[in-house]
């Protein structure tokens, strides 16, 4: 069971990296600013590196992935509060929390095993 949860957490990091990059691109197009694009690319690259690290050291890789998803949930929560009409930020806030919880569960299982 533990192997399944850690594998799910690893692929959550991988999938979430593409979501962050894609949303950064879409927000950049919508807002007309390059800043969301740069944040999305940075988040995507960081999460991809975390995914690669997780194959060699599961606790470090998932720890980095959890940190990135937790920071992203704060970022998107603040963005939603500042622009309440922009609902994709709210969706990303919820998705970031779900990703953080899945990654944290995988990290806990990896540490316990």
Strand content: under 5%
Described by strand count, sense and barrel closure, the largest sheet is:
none
**What is the succession of H and E elements?**
HHHH
What is the count of DSSP helices, taking H or I runs of 4+ residues?
4
Question: Summed up, what is this model?
Answer:
The chain has helices at about 1-30, 35-55, 60-80, 85-110. By secondary structure, it is mainly α.
Topology:
Layout: H1 2-31, H2 35-56, H3 58-82, H4 87-112
What does this structure look like?
The protein is mostly helical. It has four helices and no strands. The chain has helices at 2-31, 35-56, 58-82, 87-112. α1 (2-31) packs parallel to α3, α1 runs antiparallel to α4 (87-112) and α3 packs antiparallel against α4. It is elongated. The chain starts with a helix and ends with a helix.
Main attributes?
113 residues; mainly alpha; 91% helix; elongated
């Amino acid at each position: 069971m533990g192997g399944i949860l850690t594998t799910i957490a690893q692929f959550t990091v991988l999938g979430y990296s593409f979501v962050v990059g894609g949303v950064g691109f879409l927000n950049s197009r919508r807002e007309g600013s390059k800043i969301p694009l740069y944040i999305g690319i940075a988040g995507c690259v960081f999460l991809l590196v975390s995914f690669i690290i997780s194959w060699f050291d599961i606790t470090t890789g998932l720890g980095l992935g959890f940190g990135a998803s937790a920071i992203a949930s704060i970022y998107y929560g603040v963005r939603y509060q500042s622009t309440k009409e922009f609902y994709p930020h709210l969706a990303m806030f919820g998705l970031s929390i779900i990703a953080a919880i899945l990654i944290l569960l995988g990290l806990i299982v990896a540490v316990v095993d």
